[in-house]
Amino acid sequence: MGRGTSITKLGCAIVTFCLLSACHHKGEQTLEETIERNYPVEANATLSIKNRDGSIRVYGAGDELHEVRIEAIKKAYKAERLKGISVRVEANRNSISIDTVYPADPGPGFSDRSGTVDYVIVVPQSLRISNLELANGEVLLEGMRSDEAHASLGNGRLFAHNCFGNLDLHLKTGNLALVYEWWEDAQFSVRCKIEDGNSFAYIPSDATFRLIAHTATGKIANDFEEKEHRHAEPENKTEMTVGTDAKTLFQFETQDGNIKISEHNP
Predict the structure, then answer these.
(1) Are 37 and 147 found together in one domain?
(2) CA distance 7 to 3
(3) Which own/partner pairs from 142-150 qualify as long-range (CB within 8 Å, at least 24 positions apart)?
(4) Which residue blocks in the chain are alpha helix, DSSP H?
(5) What tens digit of pLDDT does each residue of 6-51 get?
(6) Which of 16, 34, 97, 244 is the most buried (most CB within 10 A)?
(7) Beta 95-101 vs 128-142: how paired, if at all?
(8) Are 77 and 114 contacting, i.e. CB atoms less than 8 angstroms apart?
């Protein structure tokens, strides 16, 4: 399958997996404010971003892009609450730091506690993500090819799509999906650590890689294991090499949850 091919059924399923549910109180209209900013950067600059509630989606573009494009959509139920949410950016050509500041939550009772920020950030694909933190919601990394990309999510869904660069992903509670619609013979590593939740990897059949996976309380299902070597009883640990001259390492560590490695034709 070529890069320009329309998204496959697999891709559609994963996109569906990653869509956030729209939650709102009956009778209350959500207020929104959109902030758009562009900052010139070097291709190997670093990005740091922190958010509490909402989403962070980072899209890697070709290195002919020499800027970081930020769109932040603030949402709340009351104008005062919306105004109290601020997006603070410190930027130079070598680094971008984004911090999301929320107003203090009111005391006990039925006071308005609403407030989310959804980020869409377009960056050079080789830009390094030194720190990406989200407490609750959804994280997406798309098309990154950098030496380092660190992402940490407290509760929600974490998704990496067609990233041929080094990834360090940590999820406390929720599900993690790693998807490649095609394969490239490149040297990179993806390390995924999940405390409470399931991990899914969708990898083309022509991929070559080293796989290390372990779950403390769950089970592992691996399509790349030879059928005659598959055990009747599910295993909780596997270590294997797929293909020859493997340059890529996939490592999954789950405390409480299952790991599924799925093979598909590119």
Answers:
(1) yes
(2) 9
(3) 142/57, 142/58, 142/59, 142/60, 143/59, 143/60, 143/61, 144/58, 144/60, 145/60, 146/44, 146/60, 147/44
(4) 9-18, 79-84
(5) 344 444 444 444 443 334 444 568 999 999 999 999 988 999 999 9
(6) 97
(7) unpaired
(8) yes
The residue to which tokens 């209209």 are assigned: 29
Would you say residue 7 lies in a domain?
no
The residue behind tokens 């974490």 is: 158
- Expressed as residue numbers, the domain containing 221 is 180-266
Q: To 10 degrees, the CA torsion angle through 247, 57, 196, 152?
A: 70
Measured distance CA(134)–CA(51) in Å, rounded:
5
Chain segment 107-149, per-residue pLDDT in tens: 665 455 679 999 999 999 999 999 999 999 999 999 999 999 9
Give tens-digit pLDDT for 46-80.
999 999 999 999 999 998 999 999 999 999 999 99
Give the C-alpha separation, 245 to 222, whole Å: 20
Judgement on whether residues 85 and 151 belong to the same structural domain of the protein: yes
Q: Is residue 8 part of a domain?
A: no
* pLDDT digits 0-9 by tens, 172-189: 999 999 999 999 999 999
pTM of the model: 0.87
Residues 195 and 135 in one domain: no
Mean pLDDT of the chain: 88
Pairing between strand 167-179 and 149-161? parallel
Cite the DSSP H helix spans in 29-109. 79-84
Number of separate domains in the chain: 2
